[in-house]
């Protein structure tokens, strides 16, 4: 088995959730930094991480790291990396993304261009050829520069892991699937407790919750760039990981997960997305405005991403909307509410200060995850019957 150092980028603020996922998969985490978690693994880990991790954005194979304050240092540092171990002579390779924070080198296009030249020079020497056709499999590269330290990774994923393959239709501003999963994992919700999203849009929160309830791996229905890297991780590793994922699925689960939206069209889209995800039998969607939100059950969860006035013309109705959210939440005796929004007056209009508040970047937008905690449900009474004796 090959020893690999793997890097899993994630949304800023979700590192602890991703770390827990990786540890639960059985791998040793070596570093947690802003927006990414690094861990040790092998070919099997590469495949399993892509298929099983709910909160990661992609899985990179760490090729190496080095210090670079000048473009010459960037060139030489890139050239020393063992590219031939990963990229064959006919491979198509490029620097897909360059990110720089607090570093002297900050131009993404220049970083990308110079690294590409350095990779070509290295591979020329190793393969003894002067021209690369680049008509084989794809090998996208990503680099992070943090305080002049460059970390270089080969992208095994391709399209971001938030693209599970089920969301063919979307709302106007959908929440990313991996962020929705991370927000659910930040709560104590489990499949024995009711979950309602009163602003479900295209259904992301309910669908991600249903996939968790059914123990359905998020990457089961999509492809990955590294599936074609036979010399890195052969097809057997991918087949074994998919077989493991399939055996773990439990569609006998009967969770109480509900999604509401005021727009009939969005309800139809949510239903179709749930069907594509294979969890349509585990979710109840309906057209319902938040003003009529109620439920007879206790100890439930509201987990939602309500409107927060992305457009100027939408802002006028926000105070009334959030007051309504607060009123309906207060009527839900013993429930908890987890609400992601960029609306700065959310707590004021809801009428209650959040018990916890976490800053989260949803793309480039700074949002807050307000956590209004309800009481814990009582523990089930222990049986009075023990060892065949009755009280």
Task: Describe the structure in your own words.
It is a single chain. α2 crosses α7 (235-248), α3 (71-79) packs parallel to α4 (108-127) and α5 crosses α6 (204-213). The chain has 10 helices and 14 strands. The strands form 2 sheets. It has a 7-stranded mixed beta sheet with strand order 2-3-1-4-7-6-5. With 391 residues, the chain is an alpha/beta fold. The chain is elongated, with a radius of gyration of 24 Å. β2 (29-33) and β3 form a beta hairpin. It folds into 2 domains: 4-155, VC0802-like; 177-217 and 230-372, Vaccinia Virus protein VP39 (Rossmann fold, 3-Layer(aba) Sandwich), CATH 3.40.50.150.
Let me know the CATH homologous superfamily of the largest domain.
Vaccinia Virus protein VP39
Approximate helicity band = 25-40%
Helix-and-strand structural type? alpha/beta
Bin the strand percentage: 15-25%
Helix and strand element order? EHEEHEHEHEEHEHHEHEEHEHEE
Indicate the mean pLDDT.
94
Cα separation of the termini: 58 Å
SSE layout and pairing:
Blueprint: E1 4-9, H1 15-25, E2 29-33, E3 36-41, H2 43-52, E4 60-67, H3 71-79, E5 92-101, H4 108-127, E6 138-146, E7 149-155, H5 177-185, E8 195-197, H6 204-213, H7 235-248, E9 257-261, H8 264-277, E10 283-287, E11 301-304, H9 318-331, E12 336-341, H10 346-350, E13 356-362, E14 365-372
Parallel strand pairs: 5-6, 8-9, 8-11, 9-10, 11-12
Antiparallel strand pairs: 1-3, 1-4, 2-3, 4-7, 6-7, 12-14, 13-14
Helix pairs in contact: 2-7, 3-4, 5-6
